[in-house]
Each structure stands twice: as structure tokens, then as C-alpha cells.
Write a structure and sequence with these properties.
This protein is mainly beta. The chain is globular and about 25 Å long. The protein has one domain: Leucine-rich repeat, LRR (right-handed beta-alpha superhelix) (Alpha-Beta Horseshoe).
């Protein structure tokens, strides 16, 4: 979903595609990530938000993503972090 001029990731945005393992939202105009935006996504291994204008992320926006994952965003620390749950 790169280069699609998305502005907000709404709650339950991916509820109909719960088996996603890679989510690439690079180079959109995303400025807000709503609470529970990624609810139910237990297979995600890579989530990339680089090249956006993110100003608001609620603390539990990413809490539903479980397992080993890599989250990347230039706007949040200019780095990627890898973690295991």
C-alpha cells in the first residue's frame, strides 16, 4: 500500500486480512495511527511506515501485533527495532 496518499490508519483497518505478514505503508501522507489500528494481526513480521508525516500514535496502536516483528519508521527515532515476544 505504498504511495497511496493514505492519511490515517483507522481502528481495525486490517480486520478483514488478519493473515498479513508484511505491511508496507511507506511514502503515504499518514499523520495519525488510531488505537487498535492493527488489532488481530498476529502474523505480522514487518511493518514499515517510512516516509510519512506521523504526528499521533496512541500507546496501544501496535499492541495487538505479536510475535517477532520489525517496526520501521523514520519519524519515530529514524531506526528499525527488532523484538521478540
Amino acid at each position: 500500500m505504498r504511495f497511496n496518499e493514505l492519511t490515517v490508519i483507522h481502528a481495525d483497518a486490517f480486520s478483514s486480512v488478519r493473515n498479513l505478514s508484511v505491511i508496507l505503508l511507506d511514502d503515504n501522507d499518514i499523520h495519525d495511527v488510531e488505537p487498535h489500528a492493527f488489532r488481530g494481526l498476529t502474523a505480522v513480521r514487518l511493518l514499515s511506515l517510512t516516509g510519512n508525516r506521523i504526528t499521533t500514535i496512541v500507546g496501544d496502536s501496535f499492541s495487538q501485533i505479536s510475535g517477532r516483528k520489525e517496526a520501521c519508521s523514520e519519524q519515530i527515532g529514524n531506526s528499525c527495532s527488532l523484538s521478540s515476544n
